[in-house]
Amino acid sequence: MWHCQGVTRPAPVPGAVRQGSLRELNLAVVLGRIAAAPRPPSRADVAASTGLTRATVSAVVDDLIAGRLVAESEPAPRAGAGRPARGLVLAGSGPAGLGLEINVDYLAACVVDLAGEVRHHTVRRADLRPVSPADALARLVTLAAEARADAEGQGLTLAGVALAVPGLVGDAGLVRLAPNLGWRDVAVPELLADHPPLAGPVPGVPPLVVDNEANLAAVGELHADPTGPASFLHVSGEVGIGAGIVLDGALFRGVRGWSGEIGHIPVQPQGRPCRCGGRGCLEQYAGQEAVLAAARLDRADLPADTAAAPLAARAAAGHPAALAALAEAGQALGVAVAGVVNLLDLDTVVLGGGYALLTPWLRPAVLAEVSRRVLTAGWAPVTVRPSTLGPEAAVVGAAGSVVRRIVAEPVGWLTRQG
């Protein structure tokens, strides 16, 4: 038996839907419908599309507005009698996600609000290979603190943090191996434990999630273009090369969560030695440092914020070494991509990271190899296009993963607000 306001009531029947769980379900259904709508729906629209009563939808929407998850937009002009209904949109003030990225030659921080707008983005260039994991993460915490201060100045509250790393991530945020950083078995959460929390506790939202940068980039790309394909290969080209595989709208992780290591597919089995211990890996022919060397560009002489832009500028100007370097990289990339397409039957390849800006010069060679090597290429062409999010895909995808968790389960955030 349980008691409420002095009234004795029978205990809930096992298996029955409790009032609390029904409210949680209604909150998630209504918020999800508002988030997915192509234009701001009215309360009546939400009721009609969900099957909930107008009274239930109105009460749920009031809770979502009070919790800073939903806002009302100005009604669109309409002909005829009657007052136009106000539309409902995800709130631009309230919870936000903090995305962090640590890569071989840069650190990044990004804040995304519930509506998916980027509210803060910072990139700091630095060669992190000589730096210990603890020191690299300490630098990242400084970047995160700046992002949090900016977010709070805009009236946002950080609900969680997602960190993108260029390596294999195991359980509990353990980076098993990041060969280009020289990391092995780095317990990231433990190294960050001595620093102040970067986000306040929200029930149902982990304070810190660590994931592979290519996975987060692929998920970010998936949600950045709702009209895009539900299955694709997203290749991130930096010093290292990683891939995120999206199948039927969901990220494919593999048995241990380590899928997508396309950078270590051998394209020349007896070729150049790689940091991973193998030979002839794709990274040694299409990674940033290999392409810059072939183009006769010294990374130290390039702007601190990007290497792709100067390379693209030289290619656009017809510089022979730059054009030859990109053609060679595209050929190697095409060999690896063709193998993945043959294996998974994908029809779209998205070039992200530094590759996004270089797509016009990489694509011809990639397509040539795909046409030559993919069995179905003659009647089922493969599309190769640049990423919608470009070089920011991983850090934006990381931040977006936090707010999407709130949209899926808003009750945790509302409990905190209450």
From TrEMBL:
Organism phylogeny: Bacteria, Bacillati, Actinomycetota, Actinomycetes, Micromonosporales
Protein name: ROK family protein
InterPro entries: ATPase_NBD, ROK, WH-like_DNA-bd_sf, WH_DNA-bd_sf
UniProt cross-references to SUPFAM superfamilies, sorted A to Z: Actin-like ATPase domain (SSF53067), Winged helix' DNA-binding domain (SSF46785)
Domain of life according to the entry: Bacteria
Pfam families in alphabetical order: ROK
Family: Belongs to the ROK (NagC/XylR) family.
